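ESCALATION

Customer reports they have been waiting on this structure for their group meeting. Please prioritize. Original submission:
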Amino acid sequence: MFPTLRPVFYGLVFLLALVLAGCSGTPTRHLVSDVCMIKTGQTSRQEVLTLMGDPDSKRMVNPGVEEWVYYEEDRSMMQDTPLVGGAFDANGYNMVRIVLAKGIVVSCRYSGFESDEFDWQDDYSWQETEKKKAAEQKPVIEKK
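Update from on-call: job pushed to the front of the queue and completed.
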């Protein structure tokens, strides 16, 4: 190799190693694909733990019946931006509820929510329109 290019080569190798190290981190769960492997009435508690890992929350519904909840944020690309990512909100949320009775899955539900799903609640223009219509329909009573 050319002696003048050696520092550039080492710099590129170092930069590549730095970029690849940034890709490592906590393992990512994919709730949508993982939940497809769970069969109601067949999958055991141990199989759920193997497929999905530890649940984010557990609660006892009745003696012998427990509910496990898996929760995952659908991160936006901006959230992964270094230094400023914490200022951005998630795109949505994914949730899986699994009910186990006597160690066997009896119910498994997946829910996905987008962050703007309930924005319609903040839109009051339809209420204003209804008020105007009601005001126009009121009879005017003249006093003598």
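Sent to customer with the following note: Residues 27-115 form a domain with the Beta-lactamase Inhibitory Protein; Chain:B, domain 1 fold (CATH 3.30.1450.10).
Escalation resolved.
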